[in-house]
Amino acid sequence: MADTPEGPDNLVPLDAIGQAPIRPPDALDYNLEASAFYSDLVARLQVENADLRARVEKAEGQLTTEQVRARMMEPWADKVFVFVSIYCGALLVLVLLAGFKVCDFNLSDTVLAVLAGSTAVSVIGLIGIVASGLFGGKSPSGS
């Protein structure tokens, strides 16, 4: 263990710096071809990375089909809801007028049954359409 300097007594003198080699020894096996290959590879990967980042940024800025579809359906859904609400309200008024015989208002049982049935069918159909739209019902083509 006499070869290894230990402690402050075995410091390398400052004038030994002038004896250091200027060029690294050839033992490092520097390969110019491999260096050029890896430099080219890194450059291509940087370009590809930049391209992919741009594509991701563009894709994040675009609306999905579902978002566009929801925006298109929203005004119509509101209009249908208002229509069905008014229709049900008008039917309620007719049934109450006929049931309590207000101002001698009278409708036959058949007319009341048709009105009540059509209201039920329209409301149930509307709920079915909304539920299939929300939860992704199967398309008519079966795909």
Instruction: Note the total helix count.
Output: 3
Low-confidence stretches: none
Describe the global form.
rod-shaped
Task: Kindly provide the radius of gyration, computed on alpha-carbon positions and rounded to a whole number of angstroms.
Answer: 42 Å
The termini sit apart by 80 Å
What share of residues is helical? 55-70%
Please state roughly what percent of the residues sit in beta strands, choosing from under 5%, 5-15%, 15-25%, 25-35%, 35-45% or over 45%.
under 5%
Mean pLDDT across every amino acid position? 79
**Domain module tally:** 2
| Class by SSE composition | mainly alpha
What's the gist of this structure?
The protein is built from 3 helices and no strands. With 143 residues, the chain is mostly helical.
